[in-house]
Specification:
Blueprint: E1 5-11, E2 20-21, E3 28-35, E4 38-45, H1 52-70, H2 78-85, E5 91-92, H3 95-110, H4 120-125, H5 138-146, E6 153-156, E7 161-164, H6 177-191, E8 197-201, E9 205-209, E10 221-226, E11 234-240, E12 243-249, E13 254-257, E14 260-263, E15 279-284, H7 287-300, H8 302-311, E16 316-323, E17 328-334
Antiparallel strand pairs: 1-17, 2-10, 3-4, 4-8, 5-7, 6-7, 8-9, 9-12, 10-11, 12-15, 13-14, 15-16, 16-17
Amino acid sequence: MQTRRQFISGSISDTDSLSLAKPSDSLLITASRSAMAGEFEIDLNANQYPQGMECSLDALDEVTRLDEKLSFFRPNSVTSYLNVVAKTEAVEVDDEVFGFVRECVVLWRETGGAFDITAAPLWETWGFARRDGRLPSDTEISNALDAVCCGAIELDESAKTIRFRDERLRLNFGAVGKGFAIDAAGRTLLAGGIDDFLIHGSFSSILANGTQHNTNNESGWQVGIAHPLKRGQRLREIRLHNVAVGTSGTQQQFFVHRGKRYGHIIDPRTGQPSDSLIGVTVIAPTAMLADALSTAFFVMGPDATIEYCENHENIKALITIPVKKGGGYEIVEVGEI
């Protein structure tokens, strides 16, 4: 079978956050809103849809609704209610929440535990919940690991209930909620007759549908992937058509202890920060899937990521791998991007 990989090598330079860059074009109209600790933005072709701004605001309302519904930090959210009650009794939820949690559990299985919505205790133990990283003791890490296991979520399909088989379990959708909200916003736009749009959340998640006008009659939307290591440079220019993109990296959240760097993406299987990759960009059919897999791939490392992509033809990835010898890096492209 012909390989789907391409390799690029380089040297490490100044660091910059791993992010996506939206297209710069004056022939766009934009609506934006703050939610989920970031900024969500919808871009439409100017003068294409009379109802464009109204539909965009409706779509952003969906983002706000899901932020309020799924937030780990809001005491009145469904997530907070589940985290309190589901450890003692089965909690009935609506189809939206049940389907969302079920898909997260499926991804946990498919990624061998690298993606886990119950990993909040590790995130807290390492101090990243307060954005104040710290080096925990082995005992603290072990205790946190004991409270992490997506497999302890009990789902009753017929009753649409969720129950935790371990009272220490808590859900946190921080690694996937943004993509889930972007997908919901996209469905709202489509229902309103908007077929050409670009939605992004904090430039780390993008959903592109249809075509951006004034782009030499090419289909899709032209966007740039920021280089995770070279300030002001782009890793790639890519054209997106009816697909989503998610990125993960630790360039913005990390701390250094005794000369060693610890990033905020924790491997839920070991309790240790992941350091086998510098950054990951994933192209997938939905923003939720792209978000979840970008986090999972960062944890899984290069070999498992390549294997996953080669077994899922609708998933593509750009992974930046550190090269210990000489302090350089290697960029691996899996799939034709």
